[in-house]
Amino acid sequence: MADSSATAGGARAADVDVVVVGAGFAGLYLLHKLRGLGFRVQVLETADDVGGTWYWNRYPGARCDIPTTDYTYSFDPALETAWTWSEKYATQPEILRYAQFVADRYDLRRDIQFNTKVEAAHWDAAANRWRIRTSTDAKLSAQHLVMASGCLSVPKTPDIPGAGRFQGPVYSTGRWPHQGVDFTGQRVAVIGTGSSGIQSIPLIAEQAAQLTVFQRTPNYSIPAGNGPVAPERRAPLEANRDAYRLAAKWSRAGVPSEPTQIYGRYSPPDVHAERFEAAWKTGELIPILGVFADQILFPDSNAIVAGKVREKIRAVVHNPETAELLSPKDHHFGTKRPCLDTGYYQTYNRPNVRLVDLRRQPITSITETGIDVGGESMRFDAIVYATGFDAMTGAIVAVDITGRDGVTLKGKWAAGPITYLGLMSVGFPNFFMVTGPGSPSVLSNMMVSIEQHVDWISDCLVRLRSDGLSTIEPTPQAEAGWMQHSQDCAAITLFPSADSWYMGANVPGKPRVFLPYVGGVDAYRKACDEVVARGDLGLRRS
Ligand code: FAD
Ligand code: N01
Q: Is the keyword Oxidoreductase in the record (predicted)?
């Protein structure tokens, strides 16, 4: 292993075993794990601190939507007992503090170069190494390159006419100012009603003089019922933490739960009502996504759940016309990620809040002073974009990654990402992705999926090293097989019918492909384990 040395600019020029892109939860655990296995690791991170998602998304109301006792690392039992979450769904500042606590506890920052964006990575076939170029001009080389660059880390560029014209402050939920924003007395526009919009709108409405929400597609949202961690959630963890975490690893979505065998289409209305109400009361996504075994497969079963959510919306929103506008009808429940909220629908009963339906009146243009819509010129003091991300592939293809024979990853993925298990891609030796497209990723509790990928990649590198080999890459047959399986799994569900970011449909020009693997965390883990058990099945090592 070669040495690293400081350059005049303070940036390090290094030859390391592994370069990791990103210091969110994936990058932090990778660094800790690989370092413990004796690898020399350099993490490169655009931000000036750790945390990833929880570093960038500082908008009011930002929280997790998987209960925090589940959305937590499990790799070290001592870490688990050293940290206590204060709420069922912790706030962004608390989750960021947790990431910082982890970085301090394992002394991770000394191998993270902050303020450094990875711009390019080229495979040097003669040396069997990745040559990496960054924004600091530091040149690194590494035997392995791991993209821990995040699935929701590249905010979408506003694709709205005149977006650059507005003269007042413009905010993006995914890049919120660290010092916070005071909207007191202001006329504020929020564009977008996905999870980020739905979490921030109630709090912005409380502060602003007037809030106008620009909605293109209404989303389904469930009240989170936030508060202290419920005793019934704490109890199984405290009774047997190992068993609880093991159950999460072998569950469908990374949170222990018993999937139902009840089909909506074959059960009577009283069962529908009882099951829906029980799920609704939990204030959790996984129960409401699993009211019926067939709700993501058949429109008639799905319609039972969707209809009942719409009834809940109508019961809260006083103005019937507004309630109708807020009721999703253009996509099946769960085919876009549903939201968890605190007082979202109630916000539309406030006198200072107005909803603009962009389906009826599209934005003509953003102007110097506001937004022109449907023949009306509205004036604003601030505009907030809650318009989402170039999800799953955005951060990966933003880096100019060139593999064997000059093939670029962006070129190979022009019609959609092609991977083996969402972990690797043919033509790109010693290249790995954490929670990449083709893995359960964003359809799961990401902490469980991150840990599984980090463990799998680490074990893979250890096997390679102990076998005295230097490169690993999937075979074309294995990759094609996984792609077929992954797309087949999605095709039997309702997911592909929606214009969701899961389908890449939110970014103009992005290929329409279902990005994550829908077969479940449990089935996926079994497939990954089988690859190892069968002597690195589908992988070519040399
Ligand atoms: P990230 O946290 O996105 O970190 C990636 C890092 O890579 C970033 O810091 C980024 O700056 C850096 N990076 C990217 N490209 C480069 C480059 N070229 N050079 C250098 N650095 C680079 N998931 C859940 O399971 N449950 C939840 O409740 C949940 N809540 C969420 C709430 C919000 C607001 C958002 C946006 C996402 C949420 N997610 C949730 C998904 C969340 O992204 C993951 O849970 C998790 O935090 C991802 O960790 P990561 O390390 O893989 O990626
Ligand atoms: O982004 P989104 P997000 N003109 O893409 C609208 C996670 N997350 O940041 O649906 C007008 O969901 C767009 O409309 P449409 C979670 O996984 C979790 O909110 O494309 N409107 C939509 O309403 C989540 O799913 C939490 O028609 C435009 C909105 O903007 C993912 O991150 C919190 C538009 C974007 O919604 C992304 O969530 C936050 C345009 N040109 C995020 N372009 C938790 O609660 C887009 N829109 C844990």
A: yes
